[in-house]
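> run fold Metallo-beta-lactamase domain-containing protein
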Amino acid sequence: MFPVHTPPTSEWLCSHGILSWKFPPSLGSYTLIGRSRAADATSLYIPELDILLDCGCLVTTAHPSSIFLTHTHSDHCLDITRLVSRSRPPQIYLPISAVQSMKDYIEKCQILRSAGAIDPDPNQWTTNHQLIGVQPDELLSFRKTIKIRIFDMDHSVPCCGYGFYECRKKLKKEYQHLTSKDIAN
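> ok
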């Protein structure tokens, strides 16, 4: 797994330091695109899963369907408002105690961006994201074969880690020679 420089393709992307790592087939052949620099910006995109881990800066022109925020320091969530979308609202996972603060942040940024041209009552807005609060030791089902374990992390604000793993079904050796029809009977 060696990092390779990936040049940005949009003016909104981080201006430097975006790397790409390809994991070996034994680990799922996933690609990790992004950067992580303490107190600056952390964002990692996995295109095969269409997920973003933290959003301190934009590292892809894609709008991922799921975003996993570890915590709400700006170097991990500053650009979240650039990924909300009415046409494809992302699911944003974050520590449960940070949900209200993130909701307020997104709403205020949208009001500021519109220069007051939108109704300041968020109840009148079209949904453009879904905030999902998570807690330590929670186990999430993600897609058909992926599970996500939530871990408590030690930080100055509520913080969580995400452990992704793939569940594969394998037949016991004594049944492997049978066809699916034979197994069903």
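The CA atoms of residues 67 and 143 lie 14 Å apart.
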